[in-house]
Amino acid sequence: MINIGIVGYGNLGRGVEANLKNAPDMNLVGIFSRRNPDTLDTEAKAYHIDDILNFKDKIDVLILCGGSRSDIPEQGPALAEHFNTVDSYDNHSQIPNYFESIDTVAKAHKYVSIIATGWDPGLFSLNRLIGEAILPKGDTYTFWGEGLSQGHGDAVRRVEGVKDGVQYTIPNTELIDQIHAGETVEYTSKSAHNRDVYVVLEEGADAEKVKNDIVTMPDYFEGYQTEVTFITEEELHANHAGLPHGGRVIRSGETSPDMQQVYEYGLNLGSNPEFTAAVNVAYARAAYKLHQEGLSGAQTVFDIAPKYLSPKSAADLRKELL
Amino acid sequence: MINIGIVGYGNLGRGVEANLKNAPDMNLVGIFSRRNPDTLDTEAKAYHIDDILNFKDKIDVLILCGGSRSDIPEQGPALAEHFNTVDSYDNHSQIPNYFESIDTVAKAHKYVSIIATGWDPGLFSLNRLIGEAILPKGDTYTFWGEGLSQGHGDAVRRVEGVKDGVQYTIPNTELIDQIHAGETVEYTSKSAHNRDVYVVLEEGADAEKVKNDIVTMPDYFEGYQTEVTFITEEELHANHAGLPHGGRVIRSGETSPDMQQVYEYGLNLGSNPEFTAAVNVAYARAAYKLHQEGLSGAQTVFDIAPKYLSPKSAADLRKELL
Asked: Which residues cross the membrane (chains A, B) (predicted)?
């Protein structure tokens, strides 16, 4: 059995807990939180994060479920001194720095840290790499959605006059159809996605002003085709409580002049955090096996042979799945 | 530069030759054939297969492009004594035996042999593994087509009264829609695929008898929904000369009770042999790099970390694609 610890108990931590029930080769040792462990709504054992070093010899892999903004950049290197770790750090532009910082510690203390697992970064990255390596003469397109974007929802909720709200990222299916048809398209993040916003107004708020403040918001909405719909708080809770997401990576390329080949990877996720957690759990298995083999240091999805994700033997994999 | 040799010059060998033009880090040393090398229609250097050992120190990786029925099972182990090899051996049930036979030789002579690359086996296998590892509670569905099936075309052409013909495998899109909708489906190879046959009759042949002989053919067509269309030789050459194929692997699973997640990998290929060759070429790069690192023995797509497929450095991959 691979003994797992969960650090952080938000949506992602709960997702890891749920997914571990589907992993017959894994055992959840405990959940570690900054909150009072007695207040966590879980049947698993819960501990305060300050007690985690007591579990140094009882846990094979820690799955870090905190936020990428401030939790993971601190916790990752600190915990890599004592544990194998897996995280879903998702600040794309900072990945090289984060890799270096955790690699140094993990190598020095002979642990494995697999960073930036999940689906993007993670499985989408994997398919960007494989698509480009196999079809070097071509273009890669990443589409996100339909799905709930946490960052854009946060931005909407900060607008004056907004009581609550959510944002869905909607891929431009016309553009996808053109790519499928082998046409050359002008892909930009803005041309490839629309944004649907559902807003509950504060009492007395000016709907037109709220709408205008949203659609003109730089970085988040400006330049996108954005639709704002006003709904009641009841509608929000009834119809927008889930965390669906998904998207696709398409590599369209030529193997010889005018010979078109299309490579596509897609996800349609009922729950974004639960699926991210499912990926974390598979890579935790890889971290354990690689550490057993004597490897140490930071790793990404690019560095891990697929066999390490499965509980099956290499011979069984060849027989059953090749 | 990675120096490549091509063994066998049919559709696949020509596909490898075409794809090498897209690989700036690779150099085609020569094509090796059982035929008189002067008769090969290529601008590359061509040699008789009997001269291949003269190239032992000039070639880093051989890509084996012969047939899986008799060429590869003989050539693979024989050539693994002197070269790193990559092949697209595709006799699924015999893969474990083939793996063992080439592994022994490659290990003894310190070469790397990557077997069964391509798309199925190959990239589809990879996605069956990853899908199952991430969503252990679920089902995997493989659909082939729309595309030309070589084996079924051969079977049609052996029927009495058939002058020429082709067969397209057509996936059952209704079943795919049901899987996308999260429904439980009864998947069998027969329920998942239909077969479209285009036949040119011999002069004086009995069309009804030919049709009946085809649709009732055991193993190939019996039990499938098969449509037979009679066409002229001109139509066959004008409309059915390409080698398109493709398909998809879908993993549909739950991460927690009733929380549906759908993972999908699809290919839409203008040319089946050229795409298979593109995969061979990327894995030839991996064979070279792994051999440089001191690895030896047989490997499959399950054993190869994705970074080895790309000409880019690990740091660049993290920066650009993660």
From this structure: none
Query: Is A18 part of any domain?
Result: yes
For the cut 90, the answer to whether the pLDDT of residue A151 exceeds it is no
* Residue B150: per-residue pLDDT: 86
Asked if A60 and A150 sit in the same domain, the reply is no
CA-derived radius of gyration, chain A: 22
Residue with tokens 């004008």: B238
Give the whole-angstrom CA distance, residue B283 versus residue B289.
10
Q: Which of B116, B269, B302 sits opposite A261 (nearest CB)?
A: B269
Closest partner residue to B256 among A18, A99, A137, by Cβ? A18
Do B96 and A318 count as a contact with CB atoms less than 8 A apart?
yes
Q: Does A264 share its domain with A250?
A: yes
Contacts of B15 in chain A (CB under 8 A): 255
Residue A90 lies in a domain: yes
What is chain B's alpha carbon radius of gyration, rounded to the nearest angstrom?
A: 22
**Side-chain-facing half-sphere of A8: CA atoms under 13 Å:** 24
ipTM: 0.96
CATH number reported for the structural domain that contains residue B176 in this entry: 3.30.360.10
- Together in a domain, B150 and B47: no
Could you tell me the two tokens for A318?
């060849």
Question: What does the mean pLDDT of chain A come to?
Answer: 96
Domain that holds residue A6: 2-121+273-314
The residue in chain A having the minimum alpha-carbon distance to the alpha carbon of residue B91 is A322
- Identify the residue whose tokens are 């790099």: B289
| Alpha-carbon distance A52 to nearest alpha carbon in chain B (angstroms) | 27
Instruction: Note every long-range contact of A39-47, with CB atoms under 8 Å and residues 24 or more positions apart, other chains counting.
Output: A40/A9, A42/A9, A42/A14, A42/A17, A44/A6, A44/A17, A46/A9
Question: Considering the domain boundaries, does residue B319 fall inside one?
Answer: no
Nearest to residue A298, comparing CAs of A140, A114, A146, A80?
A114
Best of A92, A302, A304 to disrupt the B interface (most B CBs within 10 Å) is A302
Check whether residue B62 and residue B140 sit in a common domain. no
Q: Residues A144, A62: one domain?
A: no
How far apart (Å, rounded) are the C-alpha atoms in residues A85 and A59? 10
User: Which CATH number goes with the domain that contains B94?
Assistant: 3.40.50.720
Residue A319 within any structural domain of the chain: no
Of A253, A270, A287, which residue constitutes the final position of a domain? A270
Contact A217, A112 (CB under 8 A): no
| pLDDT, average across residues B168-181 | 95
Query: Is B262 found in the same domain as B137?
Result: yes
Q: Are B23 and A136 an interchain contact pair (Cβ–Cβ within 8 Å)?
A: yes
In tens, the pLDDT along B39-97 reads 999 999 999 999 999 999 999 999 999 999 899 999 999 999 999 999 999 998 999 99
The DSSP output letter for B89 is: -
Beta strands per DSSP E along chain B: 2-7, 26-33, 46-48, 61-64, 84-87, 112-114, 138-144, 147-148, 162-171, 193-201, 225-230, 245-256, 259-269, 297-299
Is residue A9 scored above 90 in pLDDT?
Answer: yes
What is the full DSSP assignment across B235-258? Answer: HHHHHS-SB-EEEEEEEEEEEETT
